[in-house]
Design a protein that fits this description.
This protein is mostly helical. Helix content is 78%, strand content 0%. The protein is elongated, with a radius of gyration of 16 Å. It starts with a helix and ends with a helix.
Length: 158
């Protein structure tokens, strides 16, 4: 059903996509569908509606179980906000998401989440923020005790 909602949004059937998204019980699927709807609204020039839908996607992503998956959903939302031209909103989402990895207990996963944030920030044109996040990712990776895991994490960051 996630793909149905995304397809509906892509062809401009926004209300139908919203109805489909509302039927989701899984927060991850619902957040993903809302993000697709917001992107379609932004592309149609409906900036106010897009901002509202992005906020709904963020709120929905906030209830996703598992810190890694929650942080990943928020990264995707921030990236979509940036692609829609909403750089300030994207940076607010990135800033909030940068704090999410703290809830990830596994250091290697935390370093990976931070690396993904930095990459998305760089792709959004936020080079300074990306460099700060890469620095935190590197520090986190350096704290990994297992030598092989540390090398893998640092290699992915480089």
């Amino acid at each position: 059903m996630r793909e149905i909602a995304k397809s509906q949004a892509e062809v401009g059937e926004i209300e139908a996509a919203k109805e489909t998204a509302a039927a989701f019980e899984d927060a991850g699927s619902k957040a993903d569908a809302l993000m697709a709807i917001a992107k379609a609204q932004a592309e149609a020039g409906e900036k106010s509606a897009a901002m509202s839908t992005f906020e709904a996607a963020k709120k929905t992503a906030g209830v996703i179980e598992g810190a890694y998956w929650k942080a990943d959903a928020l990264r995707e939302i921030a990236k979509s906000q940036a692609e829609a031209g909403e750089k300030d909103a994207a940076m607010r989402t990135f800033d909030g998401r940068r704090r999410r990895p703290e809830a990830i207990e596994d250091t290697q996963s935390k370093a990976g989440a931070l690396r993904a944030i930095a990459k998305a920030q760089a792709e959004a044109g936020e080079k300074d923020a990306a460099m700060r996040t890469f620095d935190v990712a590197k520090e986190t990776a350096e704290a990994i005790e297992d030598t092989q895991s540390k090398a893998e994490a640092l290699g992915k960051i480089a």
